[in-house]
């Protein structure tokens, strides 16, 4: 027993939780197993709720500076947890990671230029590139013996184009769950250096790795001038709605450009609750995160054992994140048919694989950071649906 109550089922509809909202589930989907949006169904670490309550107890919410303890909290976490030494002066606050990605694209590429992505990958990358008038350049991952690999020769080929100057790296990779190794990242860093490509590393899932896999900050193996790292406690500490994120920008000229843009757009004010939540997470949240990771690993073990008994679906075992990439291609269903099957037969609302790029056709992404009994019950309905499907197609 962790003592953190991960088995407790919380009614998230009391607040407008996106994962459980009709905006995501559809008006007809409110009773489905809501396992799409990437947050956890767990109560956050008590140190976070206590910090927010303590700040709320002071009844003045006027303008605030960055709390003195915040930057040391961030660098202390990165050093203790990930053995990555970051200079406090290189850290810039951001409202959220996607905002930082969009700013980087705007600042460091010109309209029409290429941005490399490695699908299947987090769908917002494509939206950011399109909405900012840039061109998405795809270097698909390669699925080999049930494990995804980066096509490094492909990156090298695409990076040679002088009109492609930036790459979005997802480390660890949503949705396929790869925790990129030091060797893979070091080879990528060599390519980026050789071709003068700026790597914008989205490492929001960096804290979430399973035994045997270690997150390597890309900036720790690359020339720091070639990297902008985007980080946040949103996933690891389940505080996405607090809007707390930060970037690490070692290159002085790039950092100055970021600061000037923050100022031009006046994205330089602080949210007092986000600051205290983030500081509490990074100074006192370690034991909670360790316990959450243990629990999530237990859910993964359940998922692995039960899916192994279900013909028609194959688990691409994640090395990190709380997201499982499920291969339903054996069912032979088109993307809309697969969605209809999962919703109509299994009562599952998961994320369509196709949303992550055409390579995701036939797959679905399941968020398994939920109370174990809920996951187990959802696996019962999937098993029955697959059984019925086999009978129907016989
Ligand atoms: C890889 C990745 N980056 C960014 C985000 C969103 O981050 P934020 O809410 O800080 O913009 C997510 C959320 O699912 C994600 O998976």
Describe, in plain words, how this protein is organized in 3D.
Helix content is 39%, strand content 15%. It is of the alpha/beta class and 394 residues long. The chain has two domains: 12-45 and 287-393, Alpha-Beta Complex (Aspartate Aminotransferase, domain 1), CATH 3.90.1150.10; 48-284, Type I PLP-dependent aspartate aminotransferase-like (Major domain) (Aspartate Aminotransferase, domain 2), CATH 3.40.640.10. Strands 2-10-9-8-7-3-4 form a seven-stranded mixed beta sheet, with helices on both faces. A four-stranded antiparallel beta sheet has the order 11-12-15-14, covered by helices on one side. It has a two-stranded parallel ribbon with strand order 1-13. Helix 10 (286-308) packs parallel to helix 12 (372-393). The chain is globular, with a radius of gyration of 21 Å. The model has no long low-confidence stretch (mean pLDDT 97). Bound molecules: pyridoxal-5'-phosphate. Pyridoxal-5'-phosphate binds next to helix 4.
């Amino acid at each position: 027993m962790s003592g953190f109550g991960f088995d407790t089922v919380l009614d998230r509809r009391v607040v407008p939780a996106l994962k459980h909202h009709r905006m995501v589930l559809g008006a007809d989907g409110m009773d489905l197993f809501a396992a799409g949006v990437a947050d956890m169904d767990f109560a956050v670490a008590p140190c976070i709720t206590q910090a927010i309550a303590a700040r709320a107890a002071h009844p003045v919410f006027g303008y605030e500076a960055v709390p003195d303890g915040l930057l040391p909290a961030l660098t202390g976490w990165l050093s203790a947890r990930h053995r990555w030494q970051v200079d406090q002066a290189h850290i810039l606050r951001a409202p959220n990671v996607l905002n930082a990605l969009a700013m980087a694209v705007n600042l460091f590429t010109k309209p029409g230029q290429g941005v490399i992505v490695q699908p299947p990958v987090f769908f917002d990358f494509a939206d950011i590139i399109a909405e900012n008038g840039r061109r998405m350049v795809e270097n698909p991952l390669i699925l080999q013996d049930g494990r995804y690999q980066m096509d490094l020769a492909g990156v090298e080929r695409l990076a040679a184009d002088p009109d492609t100057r930036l790459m979005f790296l997802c480390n660890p990779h949503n949705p396929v769950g790869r925790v990129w190794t030091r060797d893979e990242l070091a080879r990528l860093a060599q390519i980026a250096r050789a071709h003068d490509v700026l790597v914008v590393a989205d490492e929001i899932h960096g804290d979430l790795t399973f035994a045997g896999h270690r997150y390597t900050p890309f900036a720790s193996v690359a020339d720091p001038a070639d990297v902008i790292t985007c980080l946040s406690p949103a996933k690891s500490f389940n505080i996405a709605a607090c809007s707390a994120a930060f970037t690490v920008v070692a290159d002085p000229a790039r950092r100055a450009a970021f600061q000037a843009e923050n100022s031009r757009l006046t994205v330089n004010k602080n949210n007092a609750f986000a600051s205290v939540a983030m500081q509490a997470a990074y100074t006192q949240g370690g034991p909670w995160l360790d316990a959450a990771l243990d629990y999530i690993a237990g859910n993964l073990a359940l998922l692995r054992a039960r899916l192994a008994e279900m013909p028609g679906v194959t688990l691409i075992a994640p090395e990190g994140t709380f997201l499982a990439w499920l291969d339903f291609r054996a069912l032979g269903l088109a993307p809309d048919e697969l969605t209809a099957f999962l919703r109509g037969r299994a009562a599952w609302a998961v994320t369509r694989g196709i949303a992550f790029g055409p390579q995701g056709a036939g797959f679905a992404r399941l968020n398994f950071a939920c109370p174990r009994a809920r996951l187990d019950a959802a696996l019962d309905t999937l098993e029955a649906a697959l059984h019925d499907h086999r009978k129907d197609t016989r």
